[in-house]
Write a structure and sequence with these properties.
mainly alpha; 1 helix; about 90% helix
């Protein structure tokens, strides 16, 4: 569970970065 909790935020931040790049 701890590994998932650390990996999930990284995955979400990657998606957010991708969204911001698409919007720009």
């Amino acid at each position: 569970m701890k590994i998932v909790a650390i990996k999930l935020p990284k995955f979400l931040s990657n998606i957010i970065k991708f969204f911001f790049r698409k919007k720009s």
